């Protein structure tokens, strides 16, 4: 079985030189292909090192206030006219001293708050890059298999570009993610099954004649999609004054985001835009207890991921058969990091702790990451004296139910001073 779509064209003007198999190293042209014909391994974008090495800090700093300031390090979108984008990126890097104190962290602690993107998750970055590549490759309809946030982003990007979309979601998705997708128009297909069922169906649809014109951002143009995540590494380094932090904590669904932040740091060092920190950097991964196949494989000291049937409230992370899992494990092992997972109660507590100490309301994925940060400090895996950046990848308003039962008004009073006094507000 081959998994290619015969797209009308290939991308020609790009620092990327082709696609390369992550498993066997076979090389292919830059086209809509995501699996190796030799070994079925996943493909990733490979760059012309000389082209990357020409990129300067000054050029980047003079660029737009969004991910496209890094266009010269991305596989598509060199020409602004071809971009399919809501211009995500340059989200705040927020200092979190109160959270640090609460957790016993003495080094600098930062939250990279990617809930501040146009559709309120980091997925706008990957979708902008994937759909820009899709347009350059000649696709005329946009699609995805989504755990929620991707659906929001693809539907919104398609609406802005005036391109039809058809997105696929599990039928049990949070209402906050269904409405925030459907509102953009386009077709929205709810599938009676898990995300992994949705993904499998999309892999089958992409092979049909009826979907030949359709770019599935995380299926047939996945190598381009994955590259968008690198901007979360570049941005943190630039925002720290062109420095790489000692430690990063990253939520994992497929595990791709984690591998690409690590790749971004490596690229920045290789092309001379930043100096590597003296002891390198260390990458930590966060999953939920309801869907922890990558963390469990690491704990069991294996590279073999045993797929699970996901449960629990962190639905945006619920990929039971994570494609980039082995590569995430490799990055964490190589950098001396660790992975852990948090149960639903810990995730809720993580959402509330982040909100109460930083003013940032995260979705369940963010709660997962904060809960795992706490565990990593307690277990001594994360060095509390070193600088740490924690990625908040999504917005709490989309998963209100996670904490709706736990918080509410602290008082209810009559509209009078007497009412206020009776409630103890006047002493
Ligand atoms: C998709 C998603 C992730 C994880 O992405 P992967 O690259 O698949 O690991 C993390 N957080 C949120 C909020 C997401 O929507
Ligand atoms: Zn291969």
Automatic annotation (TrEMBL):
**Which cofactors does this gene product need?**
pyridoxal 5'-phosphate
Record carries keyword Lyase: yes
- List keywords of the entry alphabetically: Lyase, Pyridoxal phosphate
EC number of the protein: 4.2.3.1
Q: Could you state one GO biological process linked to this protein?
A: L-threonine catabolic process
Post-translational modification N6-(pyridoxal phosphate)lysine, affected residues: 123
* Molecular function terms, GO-annotated: L-serine ammonia-lyase activity; threonine deaminase activity; threonine synthase activity
For whether the record's keyword set contains Methyltransferase, the answer is no
Q: Which NCBIfam families match?
A: thrC (TIGR00260)
Q: Please identify the protein, giving its name as recorded.
A: Threonine synthase
What is the source species?
Actinoplanes regularis
Q: What is the lineage of its organism?
A: Bacteria, Bacillati, Actinomycetota, Actinomycetes, Micromonosporales
């Amino acid at each position: 079985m081959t998994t290619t779509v015969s797209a009308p064209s290939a991308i020609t003007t790009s620092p990327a030189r082709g696609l390369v198999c992550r498993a066997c190293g076979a090389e292919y042209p830059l086209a809509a292909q995501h699996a190796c014909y030799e070994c079925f391994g996943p493909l990733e974008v490979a760059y012309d090192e000389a082209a990357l090495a020409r990129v300067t800090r000054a050029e980047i700093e003079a660029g737009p206030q969004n991910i496209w300031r890094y266009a010269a390090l991305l596989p598509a979108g060199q020409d602004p006219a071809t971009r399919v984008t809501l211009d995500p990126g340059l989200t705040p890097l927020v200092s979190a001293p109160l959270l640090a104190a609460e957790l016993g962290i003495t080094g600098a602690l930062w939250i990279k708050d990617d809930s501040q993107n146009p559709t309120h998750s980091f997925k706008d970055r990957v979708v902008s890059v994937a759909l820009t590549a899709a347009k350059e490759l000649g696709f005329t309809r946009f699609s995805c298999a989504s755990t929620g946030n991707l659906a929001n982003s693809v539907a919104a990007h398609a609406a802005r570009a005036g391109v039809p979309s058809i997105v696929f979601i599990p039928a049990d998705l949070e209402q906050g993610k269904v409405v925030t997708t459907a509102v953009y128009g386009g077709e929205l297909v709810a599938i009676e099954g898990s995300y992994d069922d949705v993904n499998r169906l999309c892999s089958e649809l992409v092979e049909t004649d009826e979907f030949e014109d359709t770019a599935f951002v995380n299926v047939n143009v996945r190598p381009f999609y994955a590259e968008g995540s690198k901007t979360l590494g570049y941005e943190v380094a630039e925002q720290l004054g062109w420095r790489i932090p000692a430690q990063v904590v990253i939520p994992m669904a497929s595990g791709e985001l984690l591998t690409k932040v690590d790749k971004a740091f490596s690229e920045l060092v290789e092309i001379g835009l930043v100096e590597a920190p003296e002891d390198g950097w260390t990458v930590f991964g966060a999953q939920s207890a309801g869907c922890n196949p990558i963390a469990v494989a690491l704990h069991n000291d294996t590279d073999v991921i045993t797929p699970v049937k996901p449960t629990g409230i962190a639905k945006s992370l619920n990929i039971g058969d994570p494609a980039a899992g082995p590569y995430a494990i490799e990055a964490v092992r190589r950098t001396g990091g660790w992975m852990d997972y948090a149960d639903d109660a810990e995730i809720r507590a993580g959402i509330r702790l982040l909100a109460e100490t930083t003013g940032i309301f995260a979705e369940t994925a963010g709660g997962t990451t904060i809960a795992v940060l706490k565990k990593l400090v307690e277990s001594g895996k994360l060095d509390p004296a070193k600088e740490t950046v924690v990625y908040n990848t999504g917005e709490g308003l989309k998963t209100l139910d996670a904490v709706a039962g736990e918080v509410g008004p602290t008082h209810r009073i009559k509209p009078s001073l007497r009412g206020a006094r009776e409630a103890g507000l006047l002493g």
